[in-house]
Design goal:
The protein has about 230 residues and is an alpha+beta fold. The protein contains eight helices and nine strands. Belongs to the acetyltransferase family. GNAT subfamily.
Length: about 230
């Protein structure tokens, strides 16, 4: 079993490994980023393939179904939760000051009104602040849960949209991704975004990749995401 300090998306604790963070880390008056992490609660981001919307209670049932998949549990280093725990997890991700999460929708179906929002869901993406002393460093996690949507560019666009949002709205300057060593597709994807190896954990069988967003990388990211439209989510 993993220690509490090794936080995954589906750890019910906050990233400090203690109580859920509601207003930033103890002892801090709160730099803008700690509040910014909750700014996405009314934000919808539209790319070419994907629309990112805030993770709300309406998405939980479908999400819960996805996470019964042993393949997804393994690929995302997640443990199965009860439905009640899943709702608790959704509230944590919505309310905590160190987390920002979006549900990924099939944009064309979604804007064309071809399905309900729940039926347009294909995955999720999130950022969480990993260092209580540094609100500019975030871990990024992405999951295209629907197998039929993988390998079609959804993961790539979603990751870029989230990085764009992290850099331009949340003040993120460094990203990290922790990936199972067997997950060669995810590793290849992050490497294609110029993430580099930071460390390898034999214990967790995972690699940590990192990217510092210097001015060159920021320019590249803004070019890649110039098509993104931000809208009010309701
Ligand atoms: C990993 C994941 C996010 C990639 O998203 P995707 O939509 O399937 O991939 P995309 O079509 O956007 O391709 C993105 C990149 O992934 C890599 N990739 C995708 N399919 C691949 C394959 N079959 N073989 C090797 N690399 C592949 C490539 O680097 C590709 O970039 P390129 O097209 O410029 O070569 C997605 O497959 C997924 O969520 N899988 C299950 C959960 C998971 O593994 N999450 C990551 C945990 S860290």
């Amino acid at each position: 079993m993993r220690p509490n300090t090794h936080v995954t998306k589906r750890t019910l604790l906050s990233s400090s490994g203690t109580a859920p963070a509601q207003a930033g880390p103890p002892g801090r008056t709160g730099p803008a980023q700690w509040d910014a992490m909750r700014l996405n609660q009314a934000v919808e981001l539209q790319g070419r393939l994907v629309a990112l919307v805030p993770y709300t209670a309406r998405h939980v049932l479908r999400y819960h179904q996805w996470m019964k998949s042993e393949e997804l549990q393994k690929l995302t280093a997640s443990e199965p939760l009860t439905l009640e725990q899943e709702y608790q997890m959704q509230r944590n991700w919505q309310d905590d000051a160190d987390k920002c999460t979006f549900i990924v929708l099939d944009k064309l179906k979604w804007v064309g009104g071809l399905c309900t929002e729940e039926d347009c869901m294909v995955g999720d993406v999130n950022l969480f602040l990993t260092d209580p002393e540094d609100p500019t460093t975030a871990e990024i996690e992405i999951m295209i849960a629907e197998p039929s949507y993988r390998g079609k560019g959804f993961g790539k666009e979603t990751t870029m949209v989230m990085m764009y949002y992290g850099v331009t709205k949340l003040g993120i300057k460094k990203f990290q991704a922790k990936i199972n060593l067997e997950n060669t597709i995810s590793i290849a994807m992050f490497q294609s975004f110029h993430f580099e190896e930071v460390s390898v954990s034999d214990v967790f069988q995972e690699v940590t990749l990192g990217l510092t967003v210097d001015s060159y990388r920021k320019k590249w990211l803004l070019e890649q995401t110039s098509h993104i439209e931000e809208k009010q989510y309701s």
